[in-house]
Design goal:
The protein has about 375 residues and is an alpha/beta fold. It is built from 11 helices and 14 strands. β6, α6 and β7 form a beta-alpha-beta unit.
Length: about 375
């Protein structure tokens, strides 16, 4: 069976060797070359035609952000995974790279004590992403500009009855490809009469920068969630990295609760935790949306929402960078609709804006 052909682009000889060695250990992956900067990387992409590229952000001559932007402007849809640093500057640069068209990112290990441990951390983060972003032989990648060969058939859940008193809460989950999907989705929404709570799989510092960036770019007020924050209609909060975000109802209305309970689906924050808590807090008055992402986080939480009479929408396969999370919900029969990203804002608006709402303090659905 054909192996996944990877090009490693990094100006550090140590990182090039580390990444090349650990990828070469996987029988499904072949490192076909390396490059010391983005300019050389573009030349080797044209020459070697890899299936995927790993790329550093800060490099001489042509940095990673400029390289990704050049690739996308040329029409290339080849998946690119960025290596980023767990710093404020690194988080901002990573978000710039994702906006330029990078597919995903992997944080560089820091202060881990040994080369062996560093390699293990990179292996655990990088290899699953590579295998999610590159399709099996004979299939067409969701990241490709070409249509998918055959979409996976799903059975849609019958629409739930509109909640008495209207929806009170919109909850959204996303992972790989989520930053750009969330940016586009939120930008296309009109002012809503309900609060929005979001889980985007990201480490600490990255969620801080992501929330601040969205708040600058959008008319919508976006914050990184704090513990005990009262959720106000027409605003959005994003779970901080390494904390689960729950929504609870008390005398003040709908309120956030941050915990560091065990990871779920290997994730903290986890979409399942948010969705489960939202269903418990407002019953059928919650609308859940699952966007592009690797894995299956959100499937169990979507079942919780549906069991309480709420509704769940998911992004379709063609517009998802990785149809893992939304696909898991759809294939489990927990989605009322499977829609392209461009059509989700109108459907969310139809469900939330034109119905009367009750105040957050007036109790559950």
């Amino acid at each position: 069976m054909a192996r996944i052909r990877v090009l490693v682009v990094d100006d550090s000889v140590v990182i090039r060797k580390l990444v090349s060695d650990l990828l070469s250990e996987d029988p499904d992956i072949e490192v076909i070359g390396t490059a010391v900067n983005g300019r050389t990387g573009l030349q080797k992409i044209a020459l070697l035609k890899p299936d995927l590229v790993t790329m550093d952000i800060e490099m001489p001559e042509l940095n990673g952000i400029e390289t990704v932007r050049s690739l996308r402007q040329s029409g290339s849809r080849i998946p690119v995974i960025m290596f980023s640093t767990l710093t404020e500057r690194g988080a901002e640069a990573t978000l710039d790279a994702l906006s330029a068209g990078a597919s995903d990112y992997v944080p560089k290990p820091a202060n881990v004590g040994s080369v062996g441990r560093s390699m293990e951390l990179v292996r655990e983060a990088l290899i699953p992403r590579i295998k999610s972003l590159v399709p099996k032989p004979g299939m067409i990648s969701p990241a490709s500009a070409m249509p998918l060969a055959r979409a996976v058939p799903v059975v849609l859940r019958p629409p739930a009855a509109p909640p008495r008193g209207g929806h009170r809460l919109l909850v959204i989950g996303a992972s790989t490809g989520g930053p750009e999907a969330l940016s586009k989705l939120l930008a296309a929404l009109p002012p809503l009469s309900v609060p929005i709570a979001i889980v985007q799989h990201m480490p600490p510092m990255f969620t801080t920068q992501f929330a601040a960036r969205l708040n600058r770019q959008l008319a919508l007020e976006v914050t990184e969630a704090t513990n005990g924050q009262v959720l106000r209609p027409g605003t959005a909060c994003i779970a901080p990295g390494d904390f689960h975000l729950e929504v609870v109802s008390d005398s003040r209305g709908l309120v956030t609760r941050l915990t560091q309970g065990p990871p779920e689906n290997y994730c903290r924050p986890a979409v399942d935790v948010l969705f489960r808590s939202a269903a418990a807090a407002v019953g059928g008055s919650v609308l859940g949306v699952v966007l592009t992402g690797m894995g299956s986080d959100g499937a169990k939480g979507s079942r919780n929402i549906n069991d309480r009479g709420g509704s769940v929408l998911v992004q379709d396969q063609h517009t998802s960078v990785v149809w893992g999370m939304p696909g898991a919900v759809a294939n489990a029969g927990e989605a009322e609709q499977v829609l392209p990203l461009s059509e989700l804002p109108a459907e969310i608006t139809r469900r939330l804006v034109h119905r009367p709402t009750i105040s957050a303090a007036s109790g559950g659905a």
